[in-house]
Amino acid sequence: MNSEINFRKATPEDAGQIWQILQQAIVRRKNDGSRQWQDGYPNPETVERDIAHGIGYVLTENNAVVAYAAVIYNDEPAYEAIEGKWLSDADFNVVHRVAVSDEAAGKGIATEIFRRIEEYSRQNGVFSIKVDTNFDNTAMLRILEKLGYTYCGEVYFRGSARRAFEKILS
User: Fold this and answer.
1) How many domains does the chain have?
2) Coiled-coil stretches, from where to where (predicted)?
3) What CATH code is carried by the domain that includes residue 10?
4) Count of C-beta atoms within a 10 Å radius of residue 70
């Protein structure tokens, strides 16, 4: 069966599906023994804010939302205080809140959304992607390693250290 996969900006109509996917990912993180996203973040207001600010993106398969990510241009205050060093000082896109639906989990969808974000970034003249994740989010750490992201140091969110990565796009 062939499926059609698309990457696009999230719309207000997507908010319910996005929140459902994030809730599934929150449970998966907990079941994996991760402390990431176990503190009331992200929440429905986070999704609404992302969409309102035009930074929410979805990956759809046959028009059904299967993954979500926030893509933020040049703006992540926590990244200014990295304990370590970024690969570049160039313009960058930050990727936050990556989540995949239970139905699509384990099928390479998280990798695909990163590939689409990289392609989108290149098309918009941005050749650096920065991302962070919890030290215990083994699934995301594996994806970042597979896609060639370089560990740059630690950043802090809501009092917790997070592993920070960057990839320079060619």
Assistant:
1) 1
2) none
3) 3.40.630.30
4) 21
